[in-house]
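Hi P.,

Sorry for the delay on this. The queue was packed all week, but I finally got your sequence through. Input first:
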Amino acid sequence: MAHDYDAKQPLILGLDNPSSQFNEKNALLKRRKNHRGSSVPSQYGSLQNQNGESDLLNSESIFTKQPSFKEVFMVLAAYLGVGALCFFLIRDQIKGTKTNGVLDALYFCIVTMTTVGYGDLVPNSTLSKLFACIFVFTGMALVGLILSKAADYLVEKQEILLVKAIHLHEKVGPTEILKEVENNKAKYKFLMVLILLLVFMIVGTIFLCQVEEMKLIDAFYCVCSTITTLGYGDESFSTGIGRVFAIIWILSSTICLAQFFLYLAEFYTEHRQRSLVKWVLTRKMTVSDLEAADLDDDNVVSAAEFIVYKLKELGKINQEDISAVMEQFKNLDVDHSGTITTADLMLSQS
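Then the structure:
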């Protein structure tokens, strides 16, 4: 690329004044945020009406939008209500350790949907087995699509409280806290759910020792086999009070463990990405790097070419992306001047 062409590059405008560029970006984001609620749906609606298509793009469901806890509660209540009613009506076809008909039916739904499956209550007829098969699949879908998303939303809301607690004795303003949460989102989500998981394990162990009268090791063993959904069945909740506790505790703890492994993988991926960025930005350039960065083979690497090369090293783009963009640029550069002007755009569209 020639030097006079570099001076006209829109890609590198503002690099010498990052503060003004940052302020402009913030202002643009605010305008987009304020305008999004009214403009986007109406645009979608007009496009769909003109094309005669359905309102699928304009509609939101509990599976795609930010979770409404009223909707989550209603879906969960509907699942448990239908399940408990079904298993209550066929309670004589379920064998095992029983306490109260309604409570056992609700407990059996929770154990089924979380795939814990202790074996203390098991289907004992064709009809009850078919119901169990239906409810295990619907329960897994409910946990995976709705409850886990709601749990993820709750954890994100608690990140700021965790950061405030970490910096309790330091003078840190709201802006710094928000910035730290954003820069280390995966880390704090992982720490938050780790704390919750430990709380669930401690509470479960104490409850089993006190109410179910298990030994400490047996109680801890039961907690571990439950939250991992291993559910051997040699230890379980056998009392009425224990099953009331299990209805809430099993659901919460199993979802918490699933989120723990999810955030662990996310944190590990983010750590690897940060390490890659640090290596790419600190390593020394070689002659071969210079040749690879010279996209137009003029023995000179401009700022735009250097940025593209570094983005490629970071894995943000690949050679196919670069080739596609360069091809589009050549098509728009009708007069082959190395720049795109208004005249080029008019000629390319004619």
